[in-house]
Every structure is written in structure tokens, then in C-alpha cells.
Amino acid sequence: MRKSIFWILLLAALPVVAQTNPPSYCCRYPMRGFGNANVNLTPLFTWWSRQEASLTNKSGNFSFLSPRPMPAWKRIVGTKVGDSQYGWFADVEIFTNTSHGFKTRIVLQNPPIQDEQQLNALQQQITGYNQQIANSQEQYKADVKEEKRAEKQAKAGSRSWHLNEALNAKNDARLSAQKRDDAQKDQATEAQTKGSLQVAEQQLAAIPTEHGRYQIDLFALETGKSLNGLPMYDLGVISYGR
Questions:
Q1: Dihedral over alpha carbons 109, 115, 118, 124 (to 10 degrees)
Q2: Alpha-carbon span 123 to 121, nearest angstrom
Q3: Sorting pLDDT into bands at 50, 70 and 90, what band is 98?
Q4: Beta bridge pairs of residue 102
């Protein structure tokens, strides 16, 4: 009975999860390099994901109460506010577990520059794809309009007994056929561009953002060092392919 009351009170005391990003964002890039040594964050990722699943789904699975591995690694969520010779200045919220965090400004060493660059590139690609789709749609409308005009003139000229009008009717018929082919190509180009757009949007969805800007959401090592009073955290050298 006492144990049951203990679990009820403990669960009731847990704060509401305030994070909005799914755990898949922070649980990326398990391999981090520090000189000649590599750190594998997989045990931490596994523990963290299970904890969030337990709290979110209210499944009654108390695996999240198991000891947290790798306590020196904190989840940091925030945005870059400037550059430093040591990395980025960033305003972040630091989470020691999935439900408790505090806000501060930090120096982030080995920042995720490649992620930020990929985000910017994808945003530019998506803007370009949307413009290409709009252009294809406008060109399709123009080609269809020209096809119908030429087809109408071809039909009118074919009923004429005048030689010049009959010749013009043949030219209009060829033009109508050409514009019909062009319209089909416009549709094919639009479909292909929409496919590329979908891929780019899926890739973009895998990168955390806030109001269109790159959002840091990764585990970083608390180094215990500071720069001008700001605590320093280190992502390590990220192995993006692993």
C-alpha cells in the first residue's frame, strides 16, 4: 500500500513536459569526436527516448526512473546569437532530464555549422522550386491558350477555298500540335519539380527550426569551463554520416 502511494505521489509531482521538439531531434549524431577519442551517446539517446515516451504516452512504464547515463551531457535547446572564436554564443534552455530545464546564455564549442548551412540551402531550394512550379503553371496556361487559338484558326482556314488561307491552316495545325506537346512538357516539368520539392521539404522537416531560423537541439558536454562568465558546452566533432 505504501509503495502504491509512493508511486502515485511521485508521478503527480513530475512537472509537465515543456519541450516541443520530438526526441528524434536531440537524439541525433551519436558519435562525437574529442581529439583521438570518440564518444558514443547511444546509451543516453536510448534512455532519453524511453523517458519521453513514458511521460508522453502515460503508459505506466517506469523505465524512465532508471539511472540517467552520461550525466555530464545536457540537452540544449535554443538559438545562435553570435559568433565566437570558440564557436557560437547561444541563448538556450538546458535540460538535465526531459521535464526540467533552465535558460541561460552559453558558448557552444564545435557548433552544428553543417546543420545550419543545410537548413539555409534547403530553404533556398524550396523557394526556387516553388518559383519553378509557378512558372511551369503559367507557361502551361499560355501554351494551352495558344494551342486553342491555333486550333480554332486551323479549322476556320481548312474550310476556305483560298490557297493562302489553306496554307495558313496547315501552319496553325502544326502550331497547335506543338503547343499541345509544350503543355504536356510543362505538366511533366511541374510534376518533377513537385517531387524535388517534396524531398527537400522532408529533409527540412528533419532539422529543428524556430520561426524559420536554425534551432539548436542537441546534447552537449558540460565542460566546467567559462568564457567571460558564460558557461562553455561542447558538442564534440559530429560524425554526420554516422
A1: -90
A2: 5
A3: confident
A4: 94
